[in-house]
Specification:
Blueprint: H1 2-17, H2 28-50, H3 55-83, H4 88-113, H5 126-141, H6 148-151, H7 157-182, H8 187-212, H9 218-256, H10 259-268, H11 274-300, H12 304-320, H13 324-330, H14 335-358, H15 361-381, H16 385-401, H17 405-412, H18 418-438, H19 445-465, H20 478-493, H21 516-521, H22 560-590
């Protein structure tokens, strides 16, 4: 650790001395810094190779990879600002990125100076909390008669109360994350999420009350546990669907509320123009939505490299959150705002590409098909041009999805590669729809809607040819309609979105940077889940077979057999592979070869 701290101190020293040597003609300090950073990364790489992997070290590795990736992003931006140097404007950009580099170095220095390991954010992710909760409930609800350990498990009163208390902690954290998502969810999803959260709380209370009953029968506990399980599954299923709908809206709003449009609006508006304020507010909401989407994507990313790419994008959004808009408001034509805008656009592109690689292709197409069907139905009732144009933009996200190499293989694996043909047909009809919308004022609405229906037909064929998910059969989603019917009575009684959930804190902590806005949004409580109670019981590792989670509908997940086969490889090598990738970048940079 001492060696790593010394190398970090060397990097910080070079960075501090760089303030006096920021001339365009003198980039030697940047080369020296990259060389010093390369030495640190090499030492970290060796340290990871020598150290045994565990949960705590894995969390530290994730933080190291995030900080190094952020430093790489900022170094390239620093080099660009130095090449564009033209007075104080660029100096502001230069200092901004240097401050971010310094922050990352200090986070690393604190990590290697403190005995405490980095917080394992994944251990508190929605996925981990849900799995832990379902594992605990399985002790009471499983029908696996072949597992004698499970059937003979002695539920003593103290053990039951301990498990019940652990469930409360985990579910409170899980609902906190759900409410954090609900805060930025689409309007039509907010009330359903509120009702589902309330249902989970009611079933949890009923289960805990039963746990307190002296000599409660196993059948009663089993019934309450199964009811709570079902409520959790319903919540998860709805979040999956709502999350996908939010992805399409988020991608679309990146275009609707772009930085360039904000710049133009600020130039043409007065200081007290409410329109500009509303536009900026919509921009902020979309960043919050992207952050929530990214948090879920990190939990389901297949490897550390993908997790780090997504975390890096969110960290950049977090930092730009308090810098980008103020730079536009101060002077929209300032070169500093231009640099920050370019940086933001690059991070958005990386965010979208990374998310497209994580999202399951069939689920993505299914959601687009649902959106397209709803849009066509609305247009038949009341024709409007703008919503149809939005539908076309969302359909373009399907093309972006299949520009990702790993997603193209999905089409290649279809029978007789029919998926490739359907995609080409989809592209052709999409062009026709865009063409007819350009002259929409001269065409009857029925003809326009007919082209959209053809687009929907091709999309349905494309969706159908992709291998049906083993977790959901082909055909209409009866579950969601049944769920909405079940919730209708509760929704009519809901006065506000979250009337009985005030005791649960929404969870939205900092990704990396400590910004003023994030501090205001920080949780007022930090209740961490204790070690699961049943893990300390002799027969804790049960082979419980329960209904497979539908989380795979949105995100790619490896099957159990494959996960077991490569678990050790991922645990021992994923961090090293990410560090190696960074080392390759640093090697080129330390030789003075820079490309913006």
């Amino acid at each position: 650790m001492e060696v790593l701290r010394k190398k970090l101190d060397a990097c910080l020293l070079i960075l501090d001395n760089s303030i006096e040597t920021t001339s365009v003609r003198n980039m030697n300090w940047l080369n020296d810094f990259c060389a010093a950073l390369l030495e640190f990364a090499s030492a970290v790489h060796k340290s990871l190779s020598d150290r045994k992997q565990n949960d705590k070290s894995h969390a530290s590795e994730e933080l190291v990879c995030l900080c190094l990736t952020q430093i790489m992003v900022c170094v390239r931006q620093v080099e660009c600002t130095m090449k564009l140097a033209s007075g104080s404007a660029v100096s502001a950009s230069h200092i901004y990125f240097l401050d971010r580099i310094r922050w990352c170095l200090q986070r690393l220095l604190h990590l290697y100076s403190s005995e405490e390991a980095a917080e394992d954010s994944q251990g508190r992710s929605f996925l981990k909390l849900l799995d832990s909760t379902l594992d605990t409930l399985a002790l009471f609800s499983s029908n696996n008669e072949e597992n004698s350990d499970l059937m003979n498990f002695q539920h003593t009163p103290s053990e039951i109360l301990g498990l019940s208390a652990q469930l409360r902690v985990n579910i409170d954290l899980l609902l906190g994350q759900t409410l954090g998502f609900a805060n930025v969810a689409l309007q039509q999803d907010k009330r359903a999420l509120s009702a589902l959260c309330q249902k989970v709380i009611r079933e949890l209370n009923a289960f805990q009350d039963e746990c307190k009953v002296p000599n409660s029968s196993n059948s009663n506990l089993k019934l309450k546990a199964m009811t709570l399980e079902q409520a959790l599954y319903q919540l998860e299923d709805f979040i999956n669907d709502a999350l996908l709908r939010l992805v399409f809206t988020c991608f679309l709003d990146f275009q609707k509320f772009s930085v360039d449009k904000i710049r133009t609006l600020l130039k043409s508006s007065s200081d007290d123009d409410a329109i500009a304020d509303e536009f900026i507010a919509d921009f902020d909401v979309n960043i919050d939505r992207a952050t929530q989407i990214g948090i879920f994507a990190i939990a389901f990313a297949p490897n550390l490299k993908m997790k780090t790419m997504m975390r890096s994008c969110l960290a950049s959004f977090e930092s730009l959150d308090t810098s980008l808009i103020p730079s536009l408001q101060a002077n929209g034509s300032d070169l500093h705002s231009d640099v920050l805008e370019q940086h933001f656009d690059e991070e958005v592109a990386k965010f979208k590409a990374t998310l497209q690689e994580i999202i399951d292709s069939r689920a993505f197409l299914g959601c687009c098909l649902e959106i397209l069907t709803s849009g066509i139905s609305a247009a038949e009732k009341h024709y409007e041009k703008v919503p149809l144009e939005d539908l076309l933009e969302m359909a373009l996200f399907v093309l972006e999805h299949f520009q990702v190499e790993v997603n193209r293989t999905v089409l290649a694996e279809t029978k007789l590669q029919i998926g490739q043909e359907y995609l080409q047909q989809f592209i052709r009809i999409l062009r026709e729809c865009k063409a007819i919308m350009m002259c929409a004022s001269q065409v009857e609405p029925k003809r326009i809607i007919k082209r959209f229906k053809i687009l929907r037909t091709i999309l349905r064929k494309l969706h159908g040819c992709i291998g049906a998910s083993k977790y959901r059969e082909e055909g209409p989603d009866d579950f969601e309609s049944h769920l909405m019917d079940e919730l209708q009575e509760e929704l009519t009684e809901t006065v506000s979105f979250f009337p009985s959930l005030s005791g649960i804190a929404t969870s939205q902590g900092s990704i990396l940077y400590d910004t003023a806005r994030r501090r205001r949004l920080a949780r007022t409580h930090d209740t961490r889940p204790k070690e699961s109670y049943h893990r300390n019981i002799k027969s804790a590792n049960y082979s419980v077979r329960r209904r497979e989670s539908l989380r795979t509908v949105m995100f790619k997940r490896q099957n159990m057999a494959e996960s077991k086969r490569i678990y050790t490889t991922i645990s021992n090598q994923s961090a090293h592979l990410q560090i190696t990738d960074i080392l390759e970048q640093l090697t080129g940079m330390s030789t003075g070869v820079f490309e913006c």
